[in-house]
């Protein structure tokens, strides 16, 4: 999958086209700036460029500007071509599994379904890779992200004690969560059974 057009609705009900496009190295300084606004321990440019070099799946959710875009978006991040950057993800393919390493929505664009859209695209892509499971780590305090994953059917596998750095040299536990995917054929069969 290179570029996908996804359609969704903003919280105010307005229809809007969102596109998932590959992240490239020119965009990394912008993405690293967003990281600083999203995490206590953000990834730097090197994390993203290493991921690109390793052939991981790095995607950005973007949308075309529209005349009625809210005035407060004026300071929101934009790509060089003028499109709004809404969020991004980084996923590492493995043997029959995919590991989600990073998913982030720009703070101004949260609670409009951006992460749910990106996760849907990731699940579809993972199935195409032949992955049977998608898994991730999440801070135990990150209730919003945990709610997102649980809403998509992820289940808690275990806890990694002290996995994440925290303030003042403390550590925070990680939940390991996983979603069973089945194959593309299983998904089609399920859809067929529902029809
Ligand atoms: C977690 C994060 C990616 C969610 O992005 P988002 O685009 O706002 O999420 P969505 O709008 O798609 O939310 C989908 C669902 O997830 C849950 N959810 C998301 N954020 C939530 C929050 N802050 N509190 C409670 N539930 C939340 C809700 O069930 C939501 O559905 P609803 O809005 O219909 O109630 C975003 O808050 C973020 O970038 N946080 C900082 C980075 C981070 O923590 N990434 C995850 C690392 S594991």
Model description:
This protein has five helices and eight strands. By secondary structure, the chain is α+β, with helices and mostly antiparallel strands. It has one domain (about 5-195): Gcn5-related N-acetyltransferase (GNAT) (Aminopeptidase). It has an eight-stranded mixed β-sheet with strand order 1-2-3-4-5-6-8-7, with helices on both faces. Strand 7 (about 155-165) and strand 8 form a beta hairpin. The mean pLDDT is about 90. Bound molecules: coenzyme A. The site of coenzyme A has 20 residues, from strand 5, helix 3 and helix 4.
SSE blueprint and pairings:
Blueprint: E1 4-9, E2 15-22, H1 28-38, H2 45-53, E3 57-63, E4 84-94, E5 97-105, H3 114-128, E6 133-139, H4 143-151, E7 155-165, E8 171-180, H5 184-194
Parallel strand pairs: 5-6
Antiparallel strand pairs: 1-2, 2-3, 3-4, 4-5, 6-8, 7-8
The chain binds coenzyme A (COA).
Beta-strand percentage range? 35-45%
Low-confidence stretches: none
Radius of gyration: 17 Å
CATH superfamily membership, which one?
Gcn5-related N-acetyltransferase (GNAT)
Strand order of the largest sheet: 1-2-3-4-5-6-8-7
The secondary-structure element order is EEHHEEEHEHEEH
CATH topology: Aminopeptidase
Distinct small molecules: coenzyme A
Total beta-strand segments? 8
Distance between the termini: 26 Å
How many domains is the backbone divided into?
1
The helix/strand class is alpha+beta
Q: Tell me about the biggest sheet?
A: 8 strands, mixed
The percentage helix is 25-40%
């Amino acid at each position: 999958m290179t570029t996908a057009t996804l359609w969704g609705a903003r919280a105010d009900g307005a229809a809007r086209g969102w596109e998932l496009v590959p992240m490239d190295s020119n965009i990394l300084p912008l993405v690293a700036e967003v990281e600083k606004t999203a995490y206590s321990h953000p990834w730097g440019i090197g994390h993203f460029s290493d991921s690109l070099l390793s052939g991981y799946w790095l995607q950005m959710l973007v949308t075309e500007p529209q005349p009625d875009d809210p005035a407060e978006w004026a300071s929101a991040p934009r790509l060089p071509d003028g499109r709004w950057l809404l969020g991004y993800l980084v996923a590492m393919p493995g043997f029959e599994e995919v590991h989600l390493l990073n998913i982030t929505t720009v703070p101004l664009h949260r609670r409009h379904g951006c992460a749910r859209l990106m996760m849907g695209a990731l699940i579809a892509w993972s199935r195409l890779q032949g992955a049977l499971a998608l898994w991730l780590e999440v801070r135990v305090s990150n209730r919003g992200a945990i709610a997102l994953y649980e809403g998509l059917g992820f289940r808690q596998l275990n806890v990694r004690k002290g996995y994440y750095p925290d303030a003042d040299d403390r550590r925070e536990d990680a939940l390991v969560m996983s979603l069973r995917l089945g194959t593309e054929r299983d998904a089609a069969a399920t859809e067929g059974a529902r029809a």
